[in-house]
Write a structure and sequence with these properties.
Order of helices and strands of chain A: HHHHHEEHHHHHH
Oligomer: heterodimer
Largest sheet of chain A: 2 strands, antiparallel
Structural class of chain B: alpha/beta
Order of helices and strands of chain B: EEEHEEEEHEHHHEHEHEEHH
Radius of gyration of chain B: 18 Å
Mean pLDDT of chain A: 83
Number of strands of chain A: 2
Mean pLDDT of chain B: 90
Radius of gyration of chain A: 23 Å
Distance between the termini of chain B: 26 Å
Shape of chain B: globular
Strand content of chain A: under 5%
Helix content of chain A: 55-70%
Strand order of the largest sheet of chain A: 1-2
Chain lengths: 305, 273
């Protein structure tokens, strides 16, 4: 009865979700029944097979989507961290390079970046994106170009998140580090960045959620990721509703799994910090977007997209 | 709070080997501007080994800025500061001051411990890790040795039981004692205290001052910015009064208690005593 940490997650949430769910189902059913009477016939087997018995194309698409998202995010985090540090550097050329990078990649559409890197560079004979062999896995040129474009684009956004995270740390921390004989680099690495990481993790989770879905833009350069597979299938069978709905379900599954992982990571990171009993919004709040209670919440920094 | 044995705070880091009467800090004509604001107007001060100097003055008088210049947390625009004979933060090139390389500045700071008004402990590290971090990272002290020294220092500031506790679980007074231990772990030749008790609740001031007094008795060279006149009377060899970026009066604590001469000093002391 009296657990040490009462969790104030009220019925209110469910009572809000249930009617919405019922409404969605009602709209779907109504849509089916009214249009079924006319010439359009929905083949629900396409949908159920895609969801419950995914063929090898879908499985490969899933694998590709997840691995592209992870790789691109890692590139983005690395580039973004360096860009943030460069943007705050004393040395002016570093600041200029970082600012130009962020300006270019936040100022142009991702779609344009993707096609420019893949088609543009290869047709102009600047870089042809040859297939490479990485640890025994063949990686197609389009996949490389896609990962490159997504990663570099993400880095430009992530730089601002990292910078905000670093700026959120009390300047007294770096002063204390310096007063102990640490250099700026040592203080950054051992004292400031580990603390900034806590501030950065929640927006990083949102960025990765976005990344999982944004991989679908690689349909433009025919990378056979999840969306591309369903896009082909719906054309082959002319069943856009069934297949696109199945694609939506798969993406929803991916982002939902990620939400669970993210909530777990945040709980772990919050250990040992001030008032850590309340470690950010719980999974239900996160999934259904209930606004967090004021107080213990980490500062929220948006990627500005 | 009890310190187990007198004379042991510095014993925990290997003692103070150097003889008294040697000049540790030599500041000459230090000038500092914050933009158009002239905050230090030719401050000069000499501190000998084992001397304790307490700096007093109203807020905005430049006392905190001055001690932050001593370990080059603030740049100076004129004058010279030497610690142990090394020009702090700058190289002289053709009679002009050029800021030194970061590595050299970091090396100079290893000799100068600093304790901040707001403690500035590292919140993601335990009390012991706070103390051992710099010796491990900067001095490359072997891990076992650093931990041993860290534990000895924690014991001397009366916090043995708190070695695995994070700063947010410590009281202000405890945090400041850990911060003092952290600074001592680098075996500094000089300690700077920037209003070490002014962010503390009244009942915690005593325990922190006790540690600083202990250090003074053991012969640590110190510059302390503080308004605790009782403390100054007990430990200071010299009290320095700053006003509007200048040192306006200097003398023994007794002098300040019995016959301060400067009008500003009189009115300042009448407000805090």
């Amino acid at each position: 009865m009296s657990s040490p940490r009462p969790r104030p997650r009220p019925q209110r949430l469910q009572s809000a979700v249930v009617p919405v769910g019922i409404a969605v189902v009602a709209v779907l059913v109504a849509g089916c029944s009214s249009s079924a009477s006319s010439t359009v016939h929905l083949n629900w087997n396409y949908f159920f097979d895609s969801v419950f018995h995914p063929d090898s194309q879908i499985q490969n698409g899933l694998w590709l989507t997840v691995s592209i998202a992870i790789t691109s995010q890692l590139i983005g985090v690395t580039l973004g961290t360096f860009a943030a540090l460069a943007k705050m550097a004393k040395f002016r050329p570093f600041r200029i390079i970082a600012n130009v990078y962020i300006w270019l990649f936040r100022g142009t559409p991702l779609v344009v970046q993707i096609v420019l890197f893949y088609f543009g560079l290869s047709v102009a004979h600047i870089y042809g994106w040859p297939t490479i062999n990485f640890l025994g896995i063949k990686i197609d040129g389009a996949v490389q170009a896609g990962v490159f474009a997504l990663g570099v684009n993400e880095g430009a956004y992530f730089a601002e998140i990292v910078r905000a995270g670093i700026l959120a740390i009390d300047p007294g921390q770096m002063e204390a580090a310096k007063s102990l004989g640490m250099t700026y680099g040592q203080g950054m690495r051992r004292i400031v960045l580990p603390q900034a990481a806590r501030v950065i993790v929640p927006p990083l989770g949102n960025e990765f959620n976005n990344m999982l879905k944004t991989t679908s833009l690689l349909v433009l350069i025919s990378v056979p990721e999840l969306y591309t597979v369903f896009n082909r299938k719906q054309g082959n069978y002319f069943a856009p509703f069934e297949f696109y709905l199945a694609a939506a379900v798969w993406f929803l599954l991916l982002t939902t799994i990620w939400s669970v992982i993210q909530a777990w990571i945040e709980r772990r990171l919050a250990k040992g910090t001030a008032g850590s009993a309340n470690a950010g919004p719980g999974l239900m709040d996160r999934l259904f977007g209930r606004s967090p209670t004021l107080g213990e919440e980490a500062p929220v920094i948006s990627g500005g997209r | 709070m009890t310190l187990e044995k007198p004379g042991d705070l510095l014993g925990a880091i290997g003692g103070v080997p150097l003889p008294p009467n040697e000049v540790v800090v030599e500041a000459a004509g230090v000038e500092k501007w914050f933009g158009r604001l002239h905050v230090l107007k030719g401050v000069s001060m000499t501190v000998k080994r084992q001397e304790v100097v307490v700096v007093i003055g109203a807020s905005g008088s430049g006392k905190t800025t001055f001690i932050r210049c001593v370990n080059h947390l603030e740049k100076i625009q004129g004058g010279r500061i030497f610690v142990n004979g090394h020009l702090i933060g700058y190289r002289e090139v053709g009679g002009k001051l050029v800021e030194d390389r970061e590595k050299n500045i970091a090396k100079q700071r290893q000799e100068i411990g600093m304790v901040f008004q707001r403690f500035n402990l590292f919140p993601h590290m335990t009390a012991l890790q706070n103390i051992t971090e710099a010796p491990l990272l900067v001095r490359k002290t072997p891990s076992a040795e650093a931990v041993e020294m860290g534990r000895a220092l924690l014991a001397r500031v009366g916090l043995s039981s708190k070695e695995n506790v994070y700063p947010n679980q410590l009281s202000g007074g405890q945090q400041q004692r850990v911060a003092i231990a952290r600074a001592l772990a680098m075996k500094p030749a000089l300690m700077l205290f920037d209003e070490p008790t002014s962010a503390l609740d009244p009942e915690m001031i005593g325990e922190v001052l006790e540690v600083i007094k202990e250090l003074a008795r053991e012969g640590m060279t110190m510059i302390v910015v503080s308004h605790e006149m009782g403390f100054a009377r007990e430990v200071a060899d010299r009290v320095v009064m700053m006003d509007d970026g200048q040192i306006i009066e200097e003398g023994t604590p007794e002098h300040f208690f019995t016959n301060p001469t400067h009008e500003r000093t009189k009115s300042f002391l009448s407000k805090i005593l």
